[in-house]
Design goal:
Largest sheet: 2 strands, antiparallel
Order of helices and strands: HHEEHHHH
Helix content: 55-70%
Distance between the termini: 14 Å
Radius of gyration: 16 Å
Strand content: under 5%
Strand order of the largest sheet: 1-2
């Protein structure tokens, strides 16, 4: 299914809203310590080959989804406020749109991904969550490299794919 930012939400700046919510986690660096956070959730660890993998969280899947959705909701709200401040009720066009995608949208998704990675993943779901977050990170790179893709209804966006996968996993805000 192709997702158009203009079709996803029928309110002003629909593209920006889709990009904010559709990607669920935006994606930023994988983080990178073997340490666990103060709440007992892990960030990342390394496997025997030295590759970073998402750590196992002490959160249940239900708790994890609530935390991830809260991260996405806060990030989406922040992106919406920035869009409103910079562009009001008008969707930016041309260079302004591309600048917004590169300067605000992609970094917002990276931040979501980074924060969600810090949660770790529910036991047994580490590979699935890591794959979704990695796809979102690659999606942020994809639209940063070619911002016009974010406004192309026929584009295969990795961010949209990751959002669909998060929804299938059970998220209600991330990927919506």
């Amino acid at each position: 299914m192709r997702i158009s930012i203009r079709e996803h939400r029928p309110r002003p700046l629909a593209l920006l809203a889709l990009l904010a919510t559709g990607a669920l986690l935006a994606l930023a660096g994988c983080g990178g310590s073997d340490d666990e956070s103060a709440d007992g959730a892990g960030a990342t660890s390394t496997d025997d080959g030295g590759a970073e993998v998402i750590a196992t969280s002490e959160l249940s899947k239900t708790e994890w989804l609530a935390e991830a959705d809260a991260i996405c909701a806060a990030a989406n709200e922040q992106l919406g406020q920035v869009a409103q401040e910079k562009h009001g009720d008008q969707k930016p066009e041309g260079a302004e749109f591309e600048a917004f995608v590169v300067e605000e949208f992609a970094p917002n998704f990276r931040s979501q991904a980074e924060q969600i990675r810090e949660l770790g993943a529910p036991a047994g779901d580490e590979e699935q969550i890591d794959a979704i977050l990695t796809k979102l990170e690659r999606g942020a790179d994809q639209i940063e490299d070619d911002p016009a893709l974010a406004d192309d209804a026929s584009a295969d966006l990795l961010i949209a794919e990751a959002g669909t996968e998060m929804q299938a996993y059970g998220a209600t805000v991330c990927g919506a």
